[in-house]
Each structure stands twice: as C-alpha cells, then as structure tokens.
Amino acid sequence: MIEPRDVVLAIIGASAALAGFVLVFLGVIIASYQSYSGGVPEKVVEPYRTVGGILLGAFGLCLLGVFVSLVWLVGGGPIEAYGVTVGFFVAELIAVFGAAVWATRMVLWR
User: Fold this and answer.
1) What does each C-alpha distance from 84 to 41, 101, 110 come to in angstroms?
2) What pTM did the predictor assign?
C-alpha cells in the first residue's frame, strides 16, 4: 500500500511542476497581448485578457496546492487533511486542463 506521505510528496512536486508549466503559457499569452500596441480594437485583445485571467487563476490554484501539501507535511500528516490535499490536486488538474482547452480554442478556432 502507498503511504499518504508519499502521495503528498508526489502532489507537492507535481503541483510545483504544473505551476511552472502554466506560468510559461501565461508568459506567452502576456507577450502576445503586449504585441498589440495602441489603436487595436478591444474586441481583438479581450480574448487574451480572458485567457490570461484563467491561466493566472490556474497558477494560483497550483501554488495553493503546493501550500496545502506543505502544511500537511509540516503538520505531521493529519489524516483529516489528507482528503483536502488530494482534492486540491484534483481541482488544479481540472483547472489546468480547462485553461489549456480555453487557450487552444482561442488560438485555433477563432
């Protein structure tokens, strides 16, 4: 059987990696947004703002997952908080996938 501590250690590493991954794509979106300088209609840049906000939210959720995992480890692994830790990881996976789908839809199907 896998120990909860091993699972949380894997979650903290995966959450940090996902945060870095999302941060790279947030940088790409920000650079694309900034490439439109003055005189561009709001309709053109609005999708970049939307995707940027979604990616920033996913990044924050990943960092929150790292924090929750760290608190769980420092707290000695209270069994009541194990489900919260795993739940945050599942939520960030969903958020990262949603952000990827949204960004892909914006770029490829508009």
Assistant:
1) 44, 26, 38
2) 0.86
